[in-house]
Amino acid sequence: MWCIAIPPDVLKSRLQSAPAGTYTGTLDVLRKTLHHDGPAALFKGLGPAMLRAFPANAACFLGVEASLNVMNKLW
């Protein structure tokens, strides 16, 4: 999921943090980003997101399984 979500998030962040008048829209951000920084710029932050995703998903899975186990014992 993060491999798909990071590029639009990078574009959104660049658009939001740029001074007024720097970009005319999302496609302008994409064009200028690809021209100046290359395609790899769209995936900045993917590494930390992936490192965060594994323990977060594991904790969520553990919480769901533990909750189901407790509920099955109570009912």
From TrEMBL:
Gene3D superfamilies: Mitochondrial carrier domain. SUPFAM superfamilies: Mitochondrial carrier (SSF103506). Solcar repeats lie at residues 1-70. The keyword DNA-binding does not apply. Transmembrane segments: none annotated. InterPro entries: MCP_dom_sf, MCP_transmembrane, Mitochondrial_Carrier. The keyword DNA-binding does not apply. Keywords: Membrane, Mitochondrion, Repeat, Transmembrane, Transmembrane helix, Transport. It comes from the Eukaryota. GO terms for molecular function: O-acyl-L-carnitine transmembrane transporter activity. Pfam families: Mito_carr. One of its GO terms (biological process) is mitochondrial transport. This is Mitochondrial substrate/solute carrier. The lineage of its organism: Eukaryota, Fungi, Fungi incertae sedis, Mucoromycota, Mucoromycotina.
